[in-house]
Write a structure and sequence with these properties.
This is Cytochrome P450. This protein is of the alpha+beta class. Helix content is about 50%, strand content about 10%. It is built from 20 helices and 12 strands. It has helices spanning about 5-25, 25-30, 55-70, 85-95, 110-115, 125-130, 135-160, 170-185, 190-195, 200-220, 225-230, 235-260, 270-280, 285-315, 315-330, 340, 345-355, 390-395, 415, 440-455, and strands at about 70-75, 80-85, 100, 165-170, 365, 370-375, 380, 385-390, 455-460, 470-475, 475-480, 485-490. A 5-stranded mixed β-sheet has the order 1-2-8-5-3. Strands 4-12-9 form a 3-stranded antiparallel β-sheet. The chain has a two-stranded antiparallel ribbon with strand order 6-7. Helix 13 packs antiparallel against helix 14 (about 285-315) and helix 14 (about 285-315) crosses helix 20. It is globular, with a radius of gyration of 24 Å.
């Protein structure tokens, strides 16, 4: 057979398969035709449009929204994606039992963390149900002594910085969110948490792990195994997988050994203990879920806390409002409870504005399992569609947020909140797959802010415009880092003060 005949045979086979695929998915194609969107190529769809740097993905989505409005479609190969930015429809979709599975892009997380709470799959409900008690309000209140101890130590270590030195505060904050998470959710003692195998490596590598996953999500050619291997990405992935297994395996071993001696109280029990004692997960599944909940707790909390502190450094009036409120309500020293944190209204506004500007998840994807109508019945999402919710773009939409690229905590004053669609702000998502750690993270982040401001005054590094240069790697962060300067307050310089007490 000549090469010409071979190529012709392959072309005919490909055309035949394409026609069969179109016939098998005729209902999807019929409904998709009613949704606006850019023209798509055969086979590739709109994949070439997204061959850009990860940071430019957000700009591409913004451009498509400007052209097509709140609803548009795009194809990534044979995968139909429909992007929805209407707040009312977002609430309806995320709370519907017809849309309660993660989208196909989350499958790219599974080599690192398996199926479950973050990556989805058949086990996510079971995994979430087991972990839930460690994230509720009672459990978080039990954890506040750890939050206070770690936040206080962080605050006092910051007083030792050179007041003229610019530094990235995330590097300092993440050390203490890591210690908080290992001593609470992971169930380790202070001594054990300082001796977890390869923990420093995992903390340093977390951003690179998420960047690798996001690159594979947004660069379709990396999903071709041969290309992924030739370019060296597979080797990097294998290194990260080994690192994750070593780290999480050591935590699980420590907890198994401790459980042979005694079982913690139900209300203060960590997630690792719950998974071990449930007997419902394999050893590998426990490692995966340990890594999942470790990194989504300590890394996300560190980013949000660093964002709040960086924003406050550029907003001196708001920094004074928050500081004065802390001193008036909580005093200059002493532990802080979750209930007391609720009284800090100015802090809450800055916290929410940070979540608006720096989304924990830039976009989320869900699989539509049954047809569901949107846009007041004008459009129908076909079964098998990948629903995309652009949280970052919703939070920056001028239709709901005046001057959306300016940092304005006053947006969350009660009188301003009343004027806005309540569904235009969804920092922790909605529905049965919303953020499991929202109560935990809020308490940890706010406790950190209280202690840092009690003993330090923050000063900006660079211009406020720099804060709108963004990096996207699943979550949204400040591209140039969370850079600040700190000046110790008088309360931190009292002679003989010991922050370890």
């Amino acid at each position: 057979m000549s090469w010409y005949t071979a190529v012709l045979s392959i072309a005919i086979a490909a055309l035949a398969y394409w026609q069969y695929w179109r016939w098998a998915h005729r209902r999807m194609l019929e409904l998709a035709a009613k949704v606006p969107g850019p023209p798509a190529l055969p086979i590739l769809g709109n994949a070439l449009m997204f061959m850009v740097k990860p940071g430019e993905i957000l700009n591409k989505i913004s451009m498509l929204h400007k052209v097509y409005g709140q609803y548009f479609k795009f194809w990534l190969g044979p995968d139909l994606n429909i992007c929805v930015k209407n707040p009312t429809d977002i609430r309806m979709l995320l709370t519907s039992n017809k849309v309660n599975q993660k989208g196909p892009l989350y499958d790219l997380m599974k080599p690192f963390i398996g199926s479950g709470i973050l990556a989805g799959g058949s086990t996510w409900r079971k995994h979430r149900k087991i972990a839930n008690p460690s994230y509720n309000k009672k459990a978080v209140e039990h954890f506040t002594h750890v939050f206070n101890a770690e936040a206080k130590q962080l605050a006092m270590e910051l007083t030792q910085k050179d007041p003229k030195m610019i530094f990235e505060i995330y590097t300092d904050v993440v050390k203490f969110t890591t210690q908080s998470v290992t001593q609470t959710l992971m169930g380790l003692s202070k001594e054990e948490s300082q001796n977890v195998y390869r923990m420093d490596e995992i903390v340093a590598a977390t951003r690179d792990i998420y960047d690798l996953i996001f690159a594979k999500m947004t660069k379709w050619w990396l999903q071709i195994p041969l290309i992924y291997w030739v370019l060296g990405w597979k080797k990097t992935q294998n290194y990260f997988i080994k690192l994750i297994n070593d780290f999480a395996g050591d935590i699980v071993r420590k907890r198994r050994k401790a459980l042979e001696i005694s079982t913690p109280d139900e209300e203060s029990m960590g997630i690792v203990d719950r998974y071990i004692l449930s007997g419902e997960l394999s050893e590998q599944e426990i490692r995966w879920v340990t890594m999942t909940l470790f990194t989504t707790s300590q890394e996300a909390a560190a980013k949000v806390a660093s964002g709040v502190l960086t924003f406050l450094s550029h907003l001196p009036e708001w920094q004074e409002l928050v500081y004065n409120e802390i001193i008036e309500v909580l005093g200059p020293n002493g532990p802080v409870s979750s209930e007391q944190l609720k009284k800090l209204q100015y802090l809450d506004m800055v916290y929410k504005e940070t979540l608006r500007c720096l989304s924990i998840a830039a976009m989320i994807q869900r699989t539509v399992e049954e047809e569901i109508s949107i846009n007041e019945g004008k459009l129908t999402l076909p079964a098998g569609t990948s629903l995309v919710i652009p949280i970052h773009h919703l939070h920056r939409d001028p239709q709901y947020w005046e001057d959306p690229w300016t940092i304005k905590p006053e947006r969350f004053l009660p009188e301003n909140v009343k004027k806005r669609d309540p569904n235009a702000f969804v920092p922790f998502s909605l529905g049965p797959m919303d953020c499991l750690g929202r109560v935990y993270a809020t308490a940890l982040v706010k406790t950190i802010i209280v202690w840092v401001l009690r003993y330090n005054r923050l000063e900006p590094a660079g211009s406020v415009e720099d804060l709108n240069k963004l990096h996207v790697g699943v979550s949204v962060s400040i591209a140039d880092g969370y850079n600040v300067k700190v000046q110790p307050r008088k309360a931190a310089l009292v002679e003989g003060f010991d922050y370890r007490k």
